[in-house]
Amino acid sequence: MKSKWMILILIQAVISLVAGILLSKMSLIGKIGVSTFYTEYGFLKHWYKGFAAVFLIQLLLIAILWIVKRITSYKNFSIVNLVFIVLGLLGLFYTYYDFTSTSHKYMNSKFHTGGYLFWLGWFTTCIFFFFARVKPKPVSETIIIKEEPKELPKTNSEI
Question: What is the pTM of this model?
Fold first, then answer.
């Protein structure tokens, strides 16, 4: 792996680590809610589980963009990357709405910052791929076997 990919993964690891730590710093009301009503989000109470979830999603995004950039044209890749950026913007706006208008506003600012860091990592990956070069998939050479034309059976007049 080249150093540029290691740098991207290291940046994502740091962002995911900080996000996981901040997401685990939810308020007492948030911890009670996660423990009683929203048990599917119980993994956010532990920083290492939050880190793992955020980091895996970021690695999945990196893998998808790398594969798409490798096997498609630049135009198609740009469309896919822009779709991911739009999805990220929608997710960021929904996160902001959720943290300001619903009961999640009582979580606390550290938890909110962890949620916003997830989207920062998302945009970092999308922007990185606009500038990163990915070696295109080699075009396999097709072997064309030229067949000799078969002789037609001799007719009675030729014998």
Answer: 0.78
Q: Count of CB atoms within 10 A of residue 15's CB? A: 21
Distance CA(111)–CA(26), nearest Å, equals: 5
Whole-Å CA distances, 67 to 73, 79, 89, 119: 11, 14, 22, 21
| Distance, C-alpha 99 to centroid of its chain | 23
Residues 109 and 4: their CA atoms lie apart, in Å, by: 33
**What is the C-alpha separation between 24 and 32, in angstroms, rounded?**
13
Sole residue written with tokens 């910052």 = 113
Residue type, position 82, single letter = L
Given a contact cutoff of 8 angstroms between Cβ atoms, the answer to whether 81 and 130 are in contact is yes
pLDDT, tens digit (0-9, with 9 covering 90-100), for 45-84: 888 999 999 999 999 999 999 999 989 888 999 999 999 9
| pLDDT tens-digit series, residues 129-147 | 988 887 766 656 555 566 6
- Matching residue, tokens 């690695």: 59
Residue labelled with tokens 């962890």: 114
Give per-residue pLDDT as tens, 77-133: 999 999 999 999 999 999 999 888 887 787 888 888 999 999 999 999 999 998 888
Q: For residue 68, give the nearest of 82, 53, 55 by alpha carbon.
A: 82
